[in-house]
Structure formats: C-alpha cells, structure tokens
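Worked Example 4.2. Consider the chain below.
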Amino acid sequence: MYYSLIILATAMFGVCFALKGAYVKLCGDGIKQSFEFTFVSSIVAMIALIVINGFKWEFTWFTFIMALISTVNGFLFTICSFKALGKINLSVFSVYSMLGGMLLPFLQGIIFYNEEITVAKILCVFFIIIALVLTIEKGDKMKGMKYYAGVFVFNGMSGVISKIFNTAPFERTSAEAYSIMGCALSAIIALAVILTVFNGEKNRKSNWGKTILFGGVSGITNRVANLLLLIALLHVDTSVQYPLVTGGVMVVSSIINLFGENKPSKKELYSVGVAFVGMLALFLIKI
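Applying the procedure from the previous section yields the following structure tokens:
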C-alpha cells in the first residue's frame, strides 16, 4: 500500500515539474513571478488540504517551527527552479532536482537513522546516478550553475526536513495539519513580499489568469504528493523512498516530454530504462 502512495506521489511530482516549466515559458522566470506562483499555489493547496483534513485545527510549536523552516526552504527552491527552468529543459532540470532529492535523504537515513545498507539500495542508487548523468548534455553543466546547485540542495533538504518532522521526539500535529500550516505560511510570506517589494511595479493583468491556472493545479498536486510521501515515510525507509521517487520522476518527466516541444533525446530515453532498472532493484533484490 505505502509503495503505491510513493508511486502516485512520483507521478504527481512529474506533473508539477511540467506545469512549472510551462508557466516559466509563458510568464517568465523572474522572482516576482515565482512569488505570485507560490502565493496562488499555496492558497489553493491550503483550501484543498483543509477539506481533506476534515476542517480540523491542530497546532504545536514544533510543527510551526518545522513548517516555517520548510516554507523558507520551499521559497529558495522555487526561486532557483524558475531561474534554472529559464535556461534548461525539463529533463536536465530533473537531473539536478531529483539527484539532490535522492542523495541527501538517502545519506540522512544511513548516517543518522541507522537504516540498513543493502545490495538493493546500493544498486538502485548506482543505476539512478548513471541515468541522471546520461541526461546531461554538453554545456548544460556550466550555465546557471548556482541555480542548479540551489535546486539540488533545496529539493534534497525538503526530504531531510520531512524526516526530521516525522521522527523528532517532540509533540507534533498530523501530517495533514503540518502541510496546511506550511501552505498558510507560504501564502502569507509570498503576499507580504508581493505587496512590499514589488508593489511599485506595473501590474501584469494578463499573467494573473495563467498564474491562477498553473499555480492552482500545481499547488494542489504538489502538496497532496508531499502529504502522501509524509504518510509513506512513517512506514518506508528514506533510503528506499527517495531513490524510488528519483527514478520515477525521471520516467514521468520523459513521458511528458514526448508530448511537448522538446522531445527526449536517445540518451534521455536510455536513462529512463536505466532508472527503471534501478527501481526494480529495490523490489526484486532481497539482500
């Protein structure tokens, strides 16, 4: 059951990447656009999660602090994502995003939580790293490297923060309430920045419609996917979950690219096969 939640979340993350990439192409990769996108996606996601949680209110200071840390990390990831997507295609973006999302939580689980190192996990990581490297074209590594590094680190930290929330010995709320709190903080901070830092700029009325459409759908999809991973983390090791998510998102991103303008190259299609082999290793190898 919990592996099915991870697979569903993986497909949803792939959709989120595609929506964010389409929005950047239509509206630009500026910081203002990233805050508007975050504001809309957070509001819509918060409403959806409140309904999912049955309109229950939960609060602990530990949850608030972790939600705030997660929110700041999320803003930094979004800003770097917009800048990176303005320079590279979705497949290359997924290289940096998912490599960080895999390695940091994987190392956290092994080093700090004494999760078992198995042959299956080692092979999975090995195949997925090969798959990620295969998607990198010449010249892509050098353009906007600081943004790619930011995508790598901040997406990885998202998983690290989630694991800390689930395992720390402090009173905490449910995963649903934690996600709702994160949405609320994101919306408040984004709106404050828009009204203060960017208040003097001319309104771009034509872009708000696109922001509401892409941001709304992306917000619900992303938050529900993260909620599914939070639930799965209670039962599945981080060193298993995040390599699985990494390989899966690469597969989904490549499939989405088949229907877009930027068709995946042969190297990218080869990488999908390698990533799929890595995922199979987690299920078929028992040592």
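The chain is about 80% helix and 0% strand. The chain has one domain: 2-284. Compare this with Example 4.1 before moving on.
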